[in-house]
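note to self — DONT lose this again. spent like an hour looking for the file last time. sequence + predicted structure for the chain T wanted, 214 res
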Amino acid sequence: NGSLTEYPVANPGFLRGIAVGPHGAIWFAENSTNRVGQVVKQTASLGSSPAGGVPGTSVTVSGSGFGAGESVSIADGAGSLRVVTADGTGAFTFTGNLRPAPFGINTFLATGQTSHRLGVASYTITPVLVATPSVVAHGSQVQVTAYGLNVNDSIGVYVDSFYFAGSTTTDSHGSMAGANAVTFTASQRLPAGTHTILALGTNGVSATGTFTIQ
């Protein structure tokens, strides 16, 4: 009718390829994050507690206003999560852990498989870094993994801000893990004691952790 309505997106950037899918869903491509987004008009209620944390944080997701006894598909910032069954009032609750997802605002999306009602709850991912093993001797190797960073970001890893340990690129979930983890040797240049590890992205998003040389 000639009117224009604007909505914020979780990952600002260049958007393209807007298309309408089944049941009136509006989809678009986020070129800046290599992800597909969906414009959602909420027709059911969804909430999470707490509303964020580092990956691995225990979180309870609750929904209401869905069809009685219907299957409800849940997705999160990492993709499809699980299918739950609403009770006789159209409500459900489950508890799980936040999965690795990109830094910042992500969403839980609940879709009723029969009613097609939609509920959305935002949660915020903060970065976390882990050194394995956390206690080593000089000459031993340390593997650095981190989660909750930006997607496809170039990461530099430093010990005590001066010792360069290596570099990598995060994956589509903002993780540096597995093949994307950084492994370095605890150099004799580093004195015995506890040291800080910094994983720093090109745009300033970072994660920190510690390890100890005995």
